[in-house]
Each structure stands twice: as C-alpha cells, then as structure tokens.
Amino acid sequence: MPHAHSDHRAICLNIAFHNSFKRSFKFDNHWLNNSDFLILAAMNWSYCLFGNPLYIHNHKLTKLKDAIKDWKRQIPTRFNKSKYKIKNDIQSIQGLIEISLSNSPSDNLQDLKLHEIALLK
Questions:
Q1: Which of 8, 17, 28, 37 is most buried, judging by how many CB atoms fall within 10 Å of its CB?
Q2: In the 8-state DSSP scheme, what is residue 76?
Q3: 76-119 pLDDT, tens digit each
C-alpha cells in the first residue's frame, strides 16, 4: 500500500574542505649561534607586561614566535644559498647547451669541459 505522506526530507549538503592547516613552529638550534637572533629574543622577551603569569608567558612566546618568523624570512639560509647556486648553475649549463647547438661538436665538448671544471671549484 503506497504511503500518502513521508517523514523523509531532502537534504542539501555543501561539502567544502577548509584548508586551515597551520604549520607548526620549529626552533633551529643554530639560531643560538647568531648574535642577531640573541638580540631579537632579548628585545622581544624583555618588555614589561602585567597580569596572570600564564598570560604573560603565552603572550611573550607568541610575540617572540612572530618576530622570529619575520626574522627568518629576512636572513639567507644555507639552504637558500645552495638553492640559488644550483639554479644559477643550471641556467649556465642551459646557456652552454644553447650555444653548443650553434657550434661545431668539438667546440661543444671543449666548452662543456671548461664549464664543468669551473662548477667543481
């Protein structure tokens, strides 16, 4: 027997994924060897704040973390230096390849060997 009335209702779902992933803060021990970092830490930790000790501690940590993130963006790291050196080396090699396509094969080999020696230094 057919039902005259149903208790089911249509549902409209809007499924959207929110990319709210935050990167966790990671402290690098080698920062302690950088005098600029020590000054930055002292400046951001030494200001006077009143209130609950847990609030003060949390507020100072947050302020220091933000200052360190800004500082990290400004200093060239060893990784960035290596990355840029490799990028420049690749561009040089690509330039040599383009030049070599227009030269004779013996000239190409000589140019590539000279460049390889220069890169290995």
A1: 37
A2: P
A3: 666 566 777 777 788 888 777 776 666 655 566 666 667 666 76
